[in-house]
Amino acid sequence: EFMQAFWDIEEAQDKAIQLLASFVRDKSALPYLLTFTELITFAMKTHIGSLKIQVDGCSLLLEILSQALEQDVVVALDENVTSSLLETVRQHSENEELLSLVCTLLMMISASEVAAENLRKVGVIPDLLSILRNFLHNEQICLSCCGVLWSLAASENNVDQAVMKSAVPVTSAVLREHLQNGTVTESACSALWALSLQGCLSENDYEPTTALLLDALRMNPERPVLAKNACLALASLLRLSEIPALRFIMDSKGSGINLIKYAYHLHFDDPEVVENICMLINEMVQYDDVVLDTLSQKMEELLSEIKSSFPSS
Protein backbone atom coordinates (compact mmCIF):
# COMPACT_ATOMS: atom_id res chain seq x y z
CA GLU A 1 0.00 0.00 0.00
CA PHE A 2 2.88 2.34 0.82
CA MET A 3 4.51 1.71 -2.58
CA GLN A 4 1.21 2.29 -4.39
CA ALA A 5 0.39 5.42 -2.39
CA PHE A 6 3.74 7.09 -3.09
CA TRP A 7 4.56 5.62 -6.50
CA ASP A 8 5.80 8.97 -7.86
CA ILE A 9 8.27 9.64 -5.01
CA GLU A 10 11.66 8.17 -5.84
CA GLU A 11 12.99 8.10 -2.28
CA ALA A 12 9.84 6.36 -0.97
CA GLN A 13 10.10 3.63 -3.61
CA ASP A 14 13.79 3.05 -2.93
CA LYS A 15 13.23 2.86 0.85
CA ALA A 16 10.46 0.31 0.26
CA ILE A 17 12.72 -1.80 -1.99
CA GLN A 18 15.49 -1.72 0.62
CA LEU A 19 13.04 -2.77 3.34
CA LEU A 20 11.80 -5.67 1.21
CA ALA A 21 15.41 -6.71 0.57
CA SER A 22 15.91 -7.15 4.31
CA PHE A 23 13.23 -9.90 4.30
CA VAL A 24 14.71 -11.93 1.44
CA ARG A 25 16.88 -14.11 3.64
CA ASP A 26 13.78 -15.25 5.56
CA LYS A 27 12.64 -18.16 3.38
CA SER A 28 9.16 -18.15 4.90
CA ALA A 29 8.67 -14.67 3.44
CA LEU A 30 9.03 -15.85 -0.18
CA PRO A 31 5.29 -16.19 -0.98
CA TYR A 32 4.78 -12.57 0.10
CA LEU A 33 7.84 -11.29 -1.72
CA LEU A 34 6.71 -12.89 -4.98
CA THR A 35 3.65 -10.64 -4.96
CA PHE A 36 5.97 -7.62 -5.04
CA THR A 37 7.73 -8.44 -8.32
CA GLU A 38 5.34 -6.33 -10.39
CA LEU A 39 5.44 -3.44 -7.91
CA ILE A 40 9.24 -3.49 -7.96
CA THR A 41 9.35 -3.40 -11.76
CA PHE A 42 6.67 -0.70 -11.78
CA ALA A 43 8.87 1.40 -9.45
CA MET A 44 11.81 0.80 -11.79
CA LYS A 45 9.73 1.78 -14.82
CA THR A 46 8.34 4.90 -13.12
CA HIS A 47 11.80 6.05 -12.02
CA ILE A 48 13.70 4.79 -15.06
CA GLY A 49 16.30 7.57 -14.77
CA SER A 50 17.27 6.63 -11.21
CA LEU A 51 20.32 4.36 -11.34
CA LYS A 52 19.93 3.56 -7.62
CA ILE A 53 16.37 2.28 -8.01
CA GLN A 54 17.38 0.26 -11.07
CA VAL A 55 20.32 -1.41 -9.28
CA ASP A 56 18.42 -1.98 -6.02
CA GLY A 57 15.33 -3.21 -7.87
CA CYS A 58 17.28 -5.63 -10.07
CA SER A 59 19.27 -6.92 -7.08
CA LEU A 60 16.06 -7.58 -5.16
CA LEU A 61 14.39 -9.32 -8.13
CA LEU A 62 17.46 -11.50 -8.52
CA GLU A 63 17.33 -12.47 -4.84
CA ILE A 64 13.62 -13.27 -5.04
CA LEU A 65 13.98 -15.35 -8.22
CA SER A 66 17.03 -17.17 -6.83
CA GLN A 67 15.08 -18.07 -3.67
CA ALA A 68 12.15 -19.23 -5.81
CA LEU A 69 14.47 -21.42 -7.87
CA GLU A 70 16.02 -22.94 -4.75
CA GLN A 71 12.58 -23.73 -3.35
CA ASP A 72 11.28 -24.98 -6.71
CA VAL A 73 8.59 -22.29 -6.82
CA VAL A 74 7.28 -21.22 -10.23
CA VAL A 75 7.36 -17.46 -10.80
CA ALA A 76 4.98 -16.14 -13.44
CA LEU A 77 6.28 -12.85 -14.83
CA ASP A 78 4.06 -11.10 -17.35
CA GLU A 79 4.93 -8.92 -20.33
CA ASN A 80 4.98 -5.77 -18.15
CA VAL A 81 7.95 -7.13 -16.22
CA THR A 82 9.94 -8.09 -19.31
CA SER A 83 9.21 -4.79 -21.06
CA SER A 84 10.24 -2.89 -17.92
CA LEU A 85 13.59 -4.72 -17.81
CA LEU A 86 14.14 -3.93 -21.47
CA GLU A 87 13.47 -0.25 -20.78
CA THR A 88 16.14 -0.39 -18.06
CA VAL A 89 18.59 -1.87 -20.57
CA ARG A 90 17.90 0.86 -23.11
CA GLN A 91 18.00 3.74 -20.64
CA HIS A 92 21.24 2.61 -18.97
CA SER A 93 23.02 0.98 -21.91
CA GLU A 94 26.46 2.16 -20.77
CA ASN A 95 26.31 1.02 -17.13
CA GLU A 96 28.17 -2.29 -16.97
CA GLU A 97 27.26 -3.13 -13.35
CA LEU A 98 23.53 -2.65 -13.95
CA LEU A 99 23.57 -4.46 -17.30
CA SER A 100 25.27 -7.44 -15.65
CA LEU A 101 22.38 -7.62 -13.15
CA VAL A 102 19.66 -7.16 -15.79
CA CYS A 103 21.17 -9.74 -18.17
CA THR A 104 21.39 -12.29 -15.35
CA LEU A 105 17.71 -11.61 -14.62
CA LEU A 106 16.80 -12.01 -18.28
CA MET A 107 18.62 -15.34 -18.41
CA MET A 108 16.76 -16.61 -15.35
CA ILE A 109 13.32 -15.61 -16.58
CA SER A 110 13.92 -16.75 -20.19
CA ALA A 111 13.93 -20.36 -18.97
CA SER A 112 10.13 -20.02 -18.91
CA GLU A 113 8.54 -20.50 -22.35
CA VAL A 114 5.99 -17.75 -21.64
CA ALA A 115 8.67 -15.28 -20.51
CA ALA A 116 10.86 -16.19 -23.51
CA GLU A 117 7.93 -15.41 -25.80
CA ASN A 118 7.38 -12.09 -24.02
CA LEU A 119 11.07 -11.22 -24.47
CA ARG A 120 10.79 -12.00 -28.16
CA LYS A 121 7.68 -9.81 -28.45
CA VAL A 122 9.37 -6.80 -26.87
CA GLY A 123 12.34 -7.19 -29.26
CA VAL A 124 15.14 -8.02 -26.84
CA ILE A 125 17.59 -9.67 -29.27
CA PRO A 126 19.08 -6.53 -30.93
CA ASP A 127 19.60 -5.07 -27.45
CA LEU A 128 21.36 -8.23 -26.26
CA LEU A 129 23.65 -8.20 -29.28
CA SER A 130 24.48 -4.54 -28.72
CA ILE A 131 25.34 -5.27 -25.07
CA LEU A 132 27.56 -8.18 -26.10
CA ARG A 133 29.45 -6.07 -28.64
CA ASN A 134 30.04 -3.32 -26.07
CA PHE A 135 30.94 -5.59 -23.14
CA LEU A 136 32.56 -8.59 -24.79
CA HIS A 137 35.13 -8.68 -21.97
CA ASN A 138 32.48 -9.15 -19.25
CA GLU A 139 32.12 -12.86 -18.48
CA GLN A 140 28.81 -12.59 -16.61
CA ILE A 141 27.18 -10.52 -19.35
CA CYS A 142 28.39 -12.94 -22.04
CA LEU A 143 27.20 -15.96 -20.05
CA SER A 144 23.76 -14.45 -19.46
CA CYS A 145 23.18 -13.10 -22.97
CA CYS A 146 24.15 -16.41 -24.58
CA GLY A 147 21.76 -18.13 -22.18
CA VAL A 148 18.91 -15.87 -23.31
CA LEU A 149 19.83 -16.38 -26.99
CA TRP A 150 19.73 -20.16 -26.46
CA SER A 151 16.28 -19.94 -24.84
CA LEU A 152 14.90 -17.81 -27.67
CA ALA A 153 16.50 -19.78 -30.52
CA ALA A 154 15.61 -23.17 -29.04
CA SER A 155 11.96 -22.21 -28.71
CA GLU A 156 9.41 -24.01 -30.87
CA ASN A 157 7.74 -20.71 -31.71
CA ASN A 158 8.56 -18.93 -34.94
CA VAL A 159 11.93 -17.22 -34.76
CA ASP A 160 12.79 -14.05 -36.64
CA GLN A 161 15.56 -15.52 -38.78
CA ALA A 162 16.95 -12.19 -39.96
CA VAL A 163 17.47 -11.06 -36.35
CA MET A 164 18.79 -14.46 -35.26
CA LYS A 165 21.30 -14.59 -38.11
CA SER A 166 22.86 -11.39 -36.80
CA ALA A 167 23.46 -13.23 -33.51
CA VAL A 168 25.87 -15.74 -35.11
CA PRO A 169 29.00 -13.52 -35.47
CA VAL A 170 28.44 -11.99 -32.02
CA THR A 171 28.05 -15.40 -30.34
CA SER A 172 31.16 -16.62 -32.17
CA ALA A 173 33.03 -13.56 -30.88
CA VAL A 174 31.98 -14.45 -27.32
CA LEU A 175 33.26 -18.00 -27.76
CA ARG A 176 36.53 -16.76 -29.23
CA GLU A 177 37.03 -14.23 -26.41
CA HIS A 178 36.27 -16.66 -23.56
CA LEU A 179 37.61 -20.01 -24.78
CA GLN A 180 39.39 -20.54 -21.47
CA ASN A 181 36.28 -19.86 -19.38
CA GLY A 182 34.41 -23.16 -19.37
CA THR A 183 31.11 -21.76 -18.08
CA VAL A 184 30.87 -19.01 -20.71
CA THR A 185 32.03 -21.43 -23.40
CA GLU A 186 29.27 -23.90 -22.47
CA SER A 187 26.69 -21.15 -22.83
CA ALA A 188 28.08 -19.91 -26.17
CA CYS A 189 28.23 -23.47 -27.58
CA SER A 190 24.59 -24.08 -26.65
CA ALA A 191 23.59 -20.78 -28.30
CA LEU A 192 25.46 -21.71 -31.50
CA TRP A 193 23.80 -25.13 -31.46
CA ALA A 194 20.34 -23.56 -31.24
CA LEU A 195 21.18 -21.03 -33.96
CA SER A 196 22.39 -23.78 -36.30
CA LEU A 197 19.20 -25.78 -35.67
CA GLN A 198 17.20 -22.73 -36.72
CA GLY A 199 19.19 -22.48 -39.98
CA CYS A 200 20.78 -19.18 -39.00
CA LEU A 201 24.32 -20.04 -40.12
CA SER A 202 25.35 -19.30 -43.69
CA GLU A 203 27.75 -21.45 -45.71
CA ASN A 204 30.51 -18.95 -44.90
CA ASP A 205 29.96 -19.63 -41.19
CA TYR A 206 30.41 -23.41 -41.41
CA GLU A 207 34.20 -23.71 -41.37
CA PRO A 208 35.08 -20.99 -38.82
CA THR A 209 32.29 -22.12 -36.48
CA THR A 210 33.46 -25.74 -36.69
CA ALA A 211 37.03 -24.65 -35.89
CA LEU A 212 35.79 -22.59 -32.92
CA LEU A 213 33.76 -25.48 -31.50
CA LEU A 214 36.76 -27.78 -31.83
CA ASP A 215 38.87 -25.18 -29.99
CA ALA A 216 36.24 -25.03 -27.23
CA LEU A 217 36.37 -28.81 -26.83
CA ARG A 218 40.16 -28.80 -27.04
CA MET A 219 40.51 -26.14 -24.31
CA ASN A 220 37.93 -27.59 -21.91
CA PRO A 221 37.81 -31.38 -22.46
CA GLU A 222 37.13 -32.17 -18.81
CA ARG A 223 33.75 -30.37 -18.71
CA PRO A 224 30.86 -32.78 -19.45
CA VAL A 225 28.29 -30.06 -20.19
CA LEU A 226 30.65 -28.42 -22.65
CA ALA A 227 31.36 -31.79 -24.31
CA LYS A 228 27.60 -32.33 -24.72
CA ASN A 229 26.96 -28.84 -26.09
CA ALA A 230 29.95 -28.84 -28.44
CA CYS A 231 29.08 -32.28 -29.85
CA LEU A 232 25.45 -31.23 -30.39
CA ALA A 233 26.52 -28.05 -32.17
CA LEU A 234 29.06 -29.92 -34.31
CA ALA A 235 26.51 -32.60 -35.20
CA SER A 236 24.05 -29.91 -36.24
CA LEU A 237 26.68 -28.30 -38.48
CA LEU A 238 27.75 -31.61 -40.04
CA ARG A 239 24.10 -32.34 -40.81
CA LEU A 240 24.03 -29.21 -42.97
CA SER A 241 27.05 -29.71 -45.18
CA GLU A 242 30.19 -31.70 -45.95
CA ILE A 243 32.27 -28.52 -45.48
CA PRO A 244 32.25 -28.66 -41.66
CA ALA A 245 32.71 -32.44 -41.81
CA LEU A 246 35.95 -32.05 -43.79
CA ARG A 247 37.12 -29.28 -41.45
CA PHE A 248 36.32 -31.55 -38.50
CA ILE A 249 38.63 -34.33 -39.66
CA MET A 250 41.36 -32.07 -41.08
CA ASP A 251 41.54 -29.18 -38.61
CA SER A 252 44.99 -27.56 -38.60
CA LYS A 253 45.26 -27.98 -34.80
CA GLY A 254 44.48 -31.70 -34.89
CA SER A 255 41.77 -34.06 -36.03
CA GLY A 256 38.37 -33.77 -34.44
CA ILE A 257 38.22 -37.56 -34.36
CA ASN A 258 41.08 -37.67 -31.86
CA LEU A 259 39.29 -35.00 -29.82
CA ILE A 260 36.07 -36.96 -29.51
CA LYS A 261 38.03 -40.13 -28.69
CA TYR A 262 39.64 -38.21 -25.84
CA ALA A 263 36.27 -36.75 -24.77
CA TYR A 264 34.80 -40.26 -24.71
CA HIS A 265 37.61 -41.61 -22.53
CA LEU A 266 37.12 -38.70 -20.11
CA HIS A 267 33.33 -39.05 -19.96
CA PHE A 268 32.63 -42.71 -20.82
CA ASP A 269 30.47 -42.96 -17.68
CA ASP A 270 28.20 -40.07 -18.75
CA PRO A 271 25.46 -41.51 -21.02
CA GLU A 272 24.48 -38.06 -22.37
CA VAL A 273 28.02 -37.24 -23.51
CA VAL A 274 28.34 -40.68 -25.12
CA GLU A 275 24.97 -40.29 -26.83
CA ASN A 276 25.98 -36.91 -28.28
CA ILE A 277 29.31 -38.32 -29.47
CA CYS A 278 27.41 -41.12 -31.23
CA MET A 279 25.10 -38.53 -32.82
CA LEU A 280 28.15 -36.63 -34.08
CA ILE A 281 29.70 -39.81 -35.53
CA ASN A 282 26.39 -40.64 -37.19
CA GLU A 283 26.38 -37.27 -38.97
CA MET A 284 30.04 -37.70 -39.92
CA VAL A 285 29.62 -41.00 -41.75
CA GLN A 286 26.98 -39.73 -44.16
CA TYR A 287 29.85 -38.37 -46.31
CA ASP A 288 31.94 -40.90 -48.27
CA ASP A 289 35.18 -38.89 -48.11
CA VAL A 290 34.85 -38.60 -44.35
CA VAL A 291 34.19 -42.33 -43.89
CA LEU A 292 37.60 -43.14 -45.39
CA ASP A 293 39.28 -40.86 -42.87
CA THR A 294 37.34 -42.29 -39.95
CA LEU A 295 38.58 -45.75 -40.95
CA SER A 296 42.17 -44.58 -41.28
CA GLN A 297 41.95 -42.96 -37.83
CA LYS A 298 40.59 -46.19 -36.29
CA MET A 299 37.15 -44.83 -35.46
CA GLU A 300 35.80 -48.40 -35.48
CA GLU A 301 37.82 -49.09 -32.31
CA LEU A 302 35.98 -46.30 -30.52
CA LEU A 303 32.62 -47.57 -31.78
CA SER A 304 33.43 -51.10 -30.59
CA GLU A 305 34.37 -49.73 -27.18
CA ILE A 306 31.09 -47.78 -26.95
CA LYS A 307 29.14 -50.84 -28.07
CA SER A 308 30.72 -53.01 -25.39
CA SER A 309 30.03 -50.40 -22.70
CA PHE A 310 26.46 -49.75 -23.87
CA PRO A 311 25.24 -53.07 -25.31
CA SER A 312 21.72 -51.72 -25.89
CA SER A 313 22.98 -48.79 -28.03
UniProtKB/TrEMBL annotation:
It is an enzyme of class 2 (transferase). It holds the Pfam family TPR_CCP1_N. It comes from the Eukaryota. Keywords: ATP-binding, Kinase, Nucleotide-binding, Serine/threonine-protein kinase, Transferase. GO terms for molecular function: ATP binding; protein serine/threonine kinase activity. Gene3D superfamilies: Leucine-rich Repeat Variant. The keyword ATP-binding applies. InterPro entries: ARM-like, ARM-type_fold. The keyword ATP-binding applies. Transmembrane segments: none annotated. It catalyses: L-seryl-[protein] + ATP = O-phospho-L-seryl-[protein] + ADP + H(+); L-threonyl-[protein] + ATP = O-phospho-L-threonyl-[protein] + ADP + H(+). Its EC number is 2.7.11.1. This is Serine/threonine kinase-like domain-containing protein STKLD1. It comes from Cepphus grylle. The gene is Stkld1_1.
